[in-house]
Amino acid sequence: LQENSALRGEVDSRRRHGDAAQRDLDELRAEAQAAREARDAAEAALSDANSKLVEFQASYNNNNNNSHHSPASSTNATTVTCEGGTAELTTVVTASSGGGSETEDQQLVRKLRQELAEASSRAEEFRVRCQQLEDSSSSSVDLESHTRALAERDAETERQSAEITRLNAELSDLMERAAQLEADRLKLESELHHQRSSAVTIDSQTEFVDTAEAATITAT
């Protein structure tokens, strides 16, 4: 009975451990999903800022295609990768020519470049976070394997517990049967003792009768 109770306690402990591990795994998956959604939003913002800058560059070049001082341009490529997904965004940066205060076009370019840098920074932050979650996912596989192993051990422990319960029931039946046999034995011993006492009494009475008869015969 003590072993049965200990096994049940171990089963309950392992089940609680497995439930806690499953909750941790669910939370990790939810966090990974949230990070992926945030990454997608950051990539969308990065793409939008890049599109605005490219669109402005095209418009700026069209407006100044007849100018003798065409602004120089350079191209930067930003690559964002997370969980197999890659977003390669090309930004066209216009270098201002001449001196003096910024024109409205130059201010717009600076604003767009700032938005692009912020979006790129956010995308990089979420890329790093996604990588961290991917690393955690590898350990979550071990966690799932451990959870399955615990479930298998729980099933085996339950089977052993059921077997012990069955054996305990059989033992209880045997003990009841033994008690009944002991009671029957005591009853038989009591009856045997009574029969022996009766036999002794009969023998005594027979001996008394025989003695009386012998005395009568002698007197006669």
UniProtKB/TrEMBL annotation:
* Residue stretches of biased makeup (Low complexity): 133-142
Q: Where is the composition biased (Basic and acidic residues)?
A: 9-25, 143-160
Q: Where is this region: Disordered?
A: 1-25, 60-79, 133-160
Name it.
GOLGA2L5 domain-containing protein
Instruction: Give the organism the record lists.
Output: Macrostomum lignano
